[in-house]
Amino acid sequence: MGPWRCLLLLPLLAPALRAQQQLMEYVERRLSLLEERISQWHDQSSRYSTELRDFKNQVLGMLEAAEKEREAMRSEVESTAVRVDRLEREVDYLETQNPAPPCVEVDETLMEKQVATAKQRKNEKYTKLTDCSDTIASVRAMKILKRFGSTSGLWTKDAAGNSEKIYVFDGTANDTVYVFPRMREFTLFSATRKAARIKLPYPWVGTGHLVYDGHLYYIRQQGSFQVIKFNLANKTVVDSSVFPAEEQIPVFGLSPFTYIEVAADEEGLWAIYATKEDEKNICLAKLDPTSLDIEQMWDTPCPRENAEGAFVVCGALHVVYNTRLPSRSRVQCVFDVSGTLAPEDASLVYFPKRYGSHSSMKYSPLERQIYAWDDGYQIIYRMEMKKKLEV
Question: Is residue 164 assigned to a domain?
Fold first, then answer.
């Protein structure tokens, strides 16, 4: 192609070249904008990273301050707990400081007179004080509260009052009673820190004690057996009496540590005991809660052998039996002092088999349930009742 032809093509190619140049300029402007935006994004990202790092450092500082405050608060709580424990020990010490107990002297003449009077009233027909005519039909329910203390012991409420306090007698020979303000404290806390302590003037023997109308009736052995009446409010001995029975022996064959079982029912106070005079069977006596005198005595047909406990319901003695290899406890002998319930008409009541044998069984006439101590376990038995004539 000649030069003249190239000159002829230049006018035709000029618009295409200008368009290409404009396109390149447009692309460069777009790239410049993208670079500018990327630069802005980079600056913003750097700023956000710096702010996040500063915020993280601020949070870490606050966490360190909170940890220091938590440690300081924990130290204060521990210090407060130590002070509370010290205060509770001081309160327990003050509560156990009883006035000097009265001197209990045994008047031999009075004792002989009480024995003679009690023997004269022996096996007489009992005149009921109330119209209670119920008897136990069956065990309606059982509730295991916890395991506390020794294998043998006693726990109970006031059998004649509306107090919610729980009284715990750990062991068969001791002088300190634990008092929990309510069932909840006794159930939830395994230690005795939540319990007040009452130190008795004389140690108890056995598990036959009773809390009745604000007083503790417990058994003391000093040669002969004495029933001590102790006021729980002012922590003093109100009265004491030598039990008018000669040559006493353990009342239950499977509980050799208990010589007298003080019980309560709708009729009042009772004493369950045994003597060598009638070694095979259990004896029953009606107690005057005010003077501790024996109002009446009975020889029952209920044997001591294999007996592990007993309680009174509406004037009827219920004796609970087991075997030396623990099996299922059962009420196998019932003796009604008023004569309205024949032994052969009484229901044979079985208790659910649990751990061993009961070292104590306390009937609550207000709640119609039994507080039992079974091999260190505290159990409540709720009873199903029926009229004696319906059994």
Answer: yes
